[in-house]
Amino acid sequence: MLLRLDQIDKFxxxxxxxxHVLHGIDLSLEAGKSLALTGESGSGKSTLLHLVAGLDSxxxxxxxxxxxxxxxxxxxxxxxxxxxTVGLVFQQFNLIPSLDVAANLAFQARLAGRPDPAxxxxxxxxxxxxxxxxxxxxxxxxxxxxRVAIGRTLAVRxxxxxxxxxxxxxxxxxxxxxxxxxxxxxxxxxxALLMVTHSNRLANRLNAHVHLHAGRLA
Amino acid sequence: xxxxxxxxxxxxxxxxPVQLAMLLLGLSLATALWSAxxxxxxxxxxxxxxxxxxxxxxxxxxxxxxxxxxxxxxxxVRLRRAGWLASPVIEGEMRFGDVRLRVLGIDPLTLxxxxxxxxxAVGDELLPFITAPGVLYxxxxxxxxxxxxxxxxxRVAEGLPPGTVLTDIGQAQVLLGAKDKISRLLLWPDQPxxxxxxxxxAPGLTLREPSETGDLARLTDxxxxxxxxxxxxxxxxxxxxxxxxxxxxxxxxxxxxxxxxALGLPARVLVLLLIAELLIFALxxxxxxxxxxxxxxxxxxxxxxxTLRGLYGADxxxxxxxxxxxxxxxxxxxxxxxxxxAAQSLWxxxxxxxxxxxxPRAWARASERALRAQxxxxxxxxxxxxxxxxxxSGLEAGxxxxxxxxxxxxxxxxxxxxxxxxxxxxxxxxxxxxxxWADTRQQLxxxxxxxxxxxLALAVNVGVSTMVSSFRLTFTGWLDQxxxxxxxxxxxxxxxxxxxxxxxxxxxxxxxxxxxxxxRVAGQPAAIYGVADHGTYRDNWPILSAVPGxxxxxxxxxxxxxxxxxxxxxxxxxxxxxxxxxxWRASIVGVYADYGNxxxxxxxxxxTLVRHYPDVSRLRYAIRIAPGKAEALAAGLRAEFGLPAQxxxxxxxxxxxxxxxxxxxxxxxxxxxxxxxxxxGLAMFASLMTLSGMRLPQLAPVWAMGLPRRHLVWLELWRxxxxxxxxxxxxxxxxxxxxxVLLAVVNVEAFGWxxxxxxxxxxxxxxxxxxxxxxGLAAAVPAWRLARLSPxxxxxxxxxxx
Amino acid sequence: xxxxxxxxxxxxxxxxxxxxxxxxxxxxxxFSVPQPGTAFNFxxxxxxxxxxxxxxxxxxxxxxxxxxxxxxxxxxxxxxALAPVERSGWxxxxxxxxxxxxxxxxxxxxxxxxxxxxxGQAGVSAAPFAAWIDNWQMAGRALPExxxxxxxxxxxxxxxxxxELALDAKGPLVPQGVQGYxxxxxxxxxxxxxxxxxxxxxxxxxxxxGVIAVSGQAWLDHEWSSQPLAEDxxxxxxxxxxFDSGEKMxxxxxxxxxxxFTSATWIKADGRPQPQAPGALRVTPLETAxxxxxxxxxxxxxxxxxxxxxxxxxxxxxxxxxxxxxxxWEGPIRFEGTHAGRGYLEMTGYx
Lengths: 218, 802, 351
Known about the structure:
The structure holds 3 protein chains of 3 kinds.
Chain A lengths: L2 E10 L6 E11 L4 E5 L6 H8 L7 E6 L2 E2 L5 H10 L1 E4 L11 H11 L5 H10 L15 H13 L5 E5 L7 H18 L2 E5 L3 H4 L4 E6 L2 E2 L1
Parallel strand pairs in A: 3-8, 3-9, 6-7, 7-8
Antiparallel strand pairs in A: 1-2, 1-4, 4-5, 9-10
Chain B lengths: L1 H14 L1 H37 L8 E4 L5 E2 L1 H8 L4 E11 L2 E8 L19 H5 L5 E3 L1 H7 L7 E3 L7 E5 H7 L5 E2 L1 E4 L10 H4 L3 E4 L6 H38 L1 H9 L4 H46 L11 H27 L17 H24 L3 H33 L3 H52 L4 E4 L3 H12 L4 E4 L1 E7 L2 E8 L3 H6 L2 E4 L3 H7 L2 E5 H7 L6 E3 L5 E8 L7 E6 H7 L7 E5 L2 H15 L6 E3 H54 L4 H42 L10 H28 L2 H10 L2
Parallel strand pairs in B: 4-7, 5-6, 14-19, 16-18
Antiparallel strand pairs in B: 1-9, 1-10, 2-8, 3-4, 3-9, 11-20, 11-21, 12-20, 13-14, 15-18, 16-19, 17-18
Helix pairs in contact in B: 1-10, 2-8, 2-10, 2-11, 2-21, 8-11, 8-14, 8-21, 10-11, 10-21, 12-13, 13-14, 13-22, 14-21, 14-22, 14-23, 21-23, 21-24, 22-23
Chain C lengths: L5 H7 L41 E12 L4 E12 L12 E10 L4 E9 L5 E4 L4 E4 L2 E5 L10 E7 L4 E8 L4 E2 L5 E3 L6 E18 L2 E16 L9 E9 L4 E8 L5 E7 L5 E3 L6 E10 L2 E11 L4 E7 L5 E2 L5 E10 L3 E8 L3
Antiparallel strand pairs in C: 1-2, 1-13, 2-3, 3-4, 5-6, 6-7, 7-8, 8-9, 9-12, 10-12, 11-12, 12-13, 14-15, 14-23, 15-16, 16-17, 18-19, 19-20, 20-22, 21-22, 22-23
């Protein structure tokens, strides 16, 4: 099992006392499989994703990634995890505005210390970015920007891709095309995919689908 | 990973070259002004050290007379014959044509090796050195000044202080008109056994231990402290730019930082990378800054040198040497300054929650709480300033007071402006005016640093120009009093002096001697003048305080007048007794103003002077004559005695010369003033430029609601001018306070005189115009960019809104 | 012994020193030159002769303490004229240099002084005789009818030593060379030169260890000239010998590229001089020692066959090095052989 969540609880402090965002979440995902996580706004799905990415830590429970419990790891170890093992795709594309497309694509792989020019070339071709490599993010359309973000993540060949509403800022046609690309590329690299979306239509295109409601798995 | 991260961070600047230029420019300018001051001070100190080290005075003990006067050279022979290894030195000032020099006479045969400055005994050079006409050794610079003058042969020697010539003691005695006199004796460090006791052999001489710092270093300390304070201020103003540029860059890159961390860059590495980035900039800007500093320093140094010569008689070369210490200090201050300016941003980054809201926060938006804290700090500082003003004393307290006043005022500025803008908003009628005031207030946090810098620069400008102008007004009035005589003549020999006196007796209303000796009074160098009992003095002398019948007391010989600086430094007052060279005492009957003179001065009756100092040089005279006849008399004097032009000077000539010295003294201050103002203008420009990028989301809705773009542009321009005008208004009281501190505290400590303060609203108006011009220019560029934006750029704001 | 005068030249022309003495023997404009057949005129000739380039009053003493320990004392005043005139005040071209030495078996004490003429710091007056520089002095206390040099008080002091000696001459002044005209080379360089070798000495030495009462004998030379050396002469060895039998001998060798130039005067116990022909004196170094980084002879064979002298000379302290501006070796000696006695040795120009 690549990813296993065990009785995860998470609270947020608010003015009216702690808010229980996640209640005893159990979840698992095998390598090469994809899992959609749906739920309404505020259901805790993004929080769950952040926990898996090591961007935040749970108040109770364990998160096993590739056999290691990542809860309690220090910042350096979590940063190393994000560099090489886990890939993130956000709703906002979070490209580096001052780097051109080629540099953005290669960025995380270089950060992780395993650049692979041949693979990058394939990715650029597959993502339809070959002609815009020298442009800057602000000169791209939204769909192109998200494709750069997906390429950046896959360039490092992560074992687990975490995507948070990756098509949320795109119109439906563009979003579907980007999602198709992402799914097929993830499948090719043999990575697992955990995707947060509010759309059942998109969720149904993944191997499995769980629904989060008020912090509990339904 | 490190390099990838760093290149991602640095790529930000490639896309924003103006911002980078501002950062580097601010840092370079700050470093430049600071280094310029350091280079000037370093040059001056090195030259004082050279002066202090000349003839090994920093390593050799000396025998001197307590009152600083010369002694008979037989003392030297007597000491040698009693077994003491001593070497005589004579020194004095003299003119070769119009070049004034310090002449040092030595005896090369007995000179201790530690005092050897020039090897005069090489081969055949000893004979010409010790026999007439002798040889003068001087630095290349000094030698060049002498090429046009009639002097003994001049040879070039390195290592001497500027403006000093070294010659044989015998030749020096002839040049200085001091036959068989010496100024002091250098003692060899190792003395033979069996010497006769010093008190018996040379009674009346004092042993002075080797001293690392000369009188000059002490005298000029306050002057250099002044410069340093200015340099520090300029640096602080420059740091405002750096701080705002760095703060902005950090805020703009906040999403990037988040992304980097999300992609697996540890926080520690990120902070270290940012520090590395800053260090690169600091070193780069530091290098440019120090180089620029040398340019500024070489431009300023001739004036500083002239000031030091005119004010303190200190000779500092007019050219700059490159000092490694200045480079090191310049780079260090650039690095430290950058880190200080970035400290807040770095600290924030360190504590940045990984999942902070993704939208960029308005840059440096000061919360109500922060503003309040700043207000409290301002109050504390201003109260501290008031406390120091009331209880403190001394130069350090003066500068602490200045620092507290300026910093307090700067910190209080945003609060004051917020208040005024609130008030403006309250009084505004119509939606556009209301929006204008509210929007201006919203801009304030982003602009406040630049406005604080502007406030500092303006306040310093007001303060310093008020001080200088007050001084000038007082000084010119004082010159009129002090230079009451129509002509001043200097004879070349005593015989000529007698002849001139006789010749003038029938041709003028009065011939008043200006005779003086130099010595030490109360342990400090001082000059003693004798004056005739004449209406010229009774009616005109700039007395500050005196006992009744002061001039009668002077004439009868039991009273002495002292100048203000002597009175202040030694805390002497009317009725106190002072001991004058030679050991006799006189009672202080008056204190007079003596601006521009670094040393103490005592005035006694001319008969008393001659009685106590029969050897006094009797070459200079003031001549009273009807003003209309002065010119003819001067021409007659020159023709009759063949006197060189500079030996007969009329009142106007001296005044022109004195005012020239005065103006030069403050030219450096004026130059620094302008530079500081320039830096502040730049700070404002930088802030407005960088803000303009963020203004679009704020302006676009107003535009969308139907306000023409041209109108918006004008409002932007007005906003800049309004803020500058308000800052100028706020700077006025601060500047006047500054002037008061300078006149009443710093000048008294630094120079020894206190001046009345005069206000010059005309100057303020000019300064205000200048400030508005700077602000207008600073606001014009972003406004112009706004004017050139296409509607689609404004529309993007909505399209991209997240 | 006019060669000694080079010392002052060397010290005032320091850079030239070490490159040989070549430049120092040159003729100079305006200076007087010694002429043969000129009679001394005392006491005036005890005083300075500013028209000549160089002059010195040179005293060496062999002294013993009560416990028999040997000491040597040197007191020298050199005059060097930059121009052949005297002026009062600082413009005087007459320069003065004093050297004082005190040699024990194990230590050498040296001091040096410089002064300008014209201001009273240093000088010589003929009668009553006084020679001084700073507080060093050689002051005459002779009765008016006696020779001004016949009784002297001597004082000098350095950082760690001083001496106070009373000198009384028990014999007459002795002209060297031919009636005081002393030839220094085959090319004819010469000086005026007379000696007083008959002093009995008593007095005290002050050393770091304490004050020591001493007595012994001393020898004074007074010599002046303007052109002391031939250009190829590189140094000299000078001997003054007090024979236990009462005779004295002065001899020197000037070294050059070849055999050198020797000269000597045999002085009878009653003071009558017997000038020897050039070359009559033979001196041979027997042993050298490393002194101040140079190789210096410290044992000599000295022969004057004319008077049956063949002695071996040994230094009291081989380290009697005068570490002055122009360094040289000067110290007391003892000798044995056909004759025995004490004396002084000076050696210059050893590199």
